[in-house]
Amino acid sequence: MNLIRRPRRLRRTESIRALVRETKLSPDDFVYPLFVCEGEGVRRAIGSMPGCFNLSIDELVKETEAARRDGIRAVILFGVPDEKDAAGSQAYAEDGITQRAIRAVKREVKEIVVIADDCLCEYTDHGHCGVIKDCEVLNDPSLDLLARTAVSQAEAGADIIAPSNMMDGFVEAIRAALDGAGFEQIPIMSYAVKYASGFYGPFREAAQSTPQFGDRRGYQMDPANAREALREAALDVEQGADMLMVKPALPYLDIIRAVRERFDLPVAAYQVSGEYAMIKAAGRLGWIDEERVALESLTSIKRAGADIILTYFARELAAKLA
Predict the structure, then answer these.
(1) Would residue 247 show up in a list of annotated catalytic residues for this protein?
(2) Is the distance from CB of 249 to CB of 309 less than 8 angstroms?
(3) For an engineered disulfide with 130, which of 58, 99, 122, 142 has Cβ 3.0 to 4.6 Å away?
């Protein structure tokens, strides 16, 4: 007798589906990105990112407290300073907006992990991620400023430094600076594979970091390249990275999988602002079931191999997953 194979037996009810589900999301997987700005009582909506805000430090603390109650264990902070200059000096200032925000969150929300993004683009008046000369981003002089930024963030109390600038040698420079300042215990979550993507548009509105000339394709990766991603990740591992990140996430699931299979460090993936904004926009127009699509997209990122997911949906979906 020829038996019919019946995979549907294991799909018949939600309880059975949950029992055999291969990939499971949890609030423990999420890192919640937050934008901190000057002022008091500021909760300024970001037009292209519904549900996201520029937050003054007092509001940032409230949002972080709420996220922790929702089950979120980690946040990543992006500073939006009032004053910018060519060297991005507010990125590494002792009293910079990010440094003050880190101190406040660590003081008020004891159990939250604070990750500090280490880049200059939010702090420079030209919007690029390093020092500029003759319209070119200079690699090695930029490393000195990125290392100073990392040390200042660690001094403020950051638990993890996440350099996102894509300068050559940035992990080695930051690791040496942290170790030299007595912060050997602070891990580096490297944006090891960061593509020059069109999906960053809403973030640039939020962080006020649009380049004033040119673009970032001279230092961020070409979206057509996959083997190069593994070379970039391997260099960061050699230089002392503790975690590797792929950014964006959904258009680069193949890269997440390749990094996961090649390296045994924790792998993070950033569901970036454009991914979030598209789901939100289509949901508001009634074209998709927003919550269902958000969960499906995050599940695909984890299924591809990400251990950690940076997502603006973190708070919104945490209660659903708890």
Answers:
(1) yes
(2) yes
(3) 142
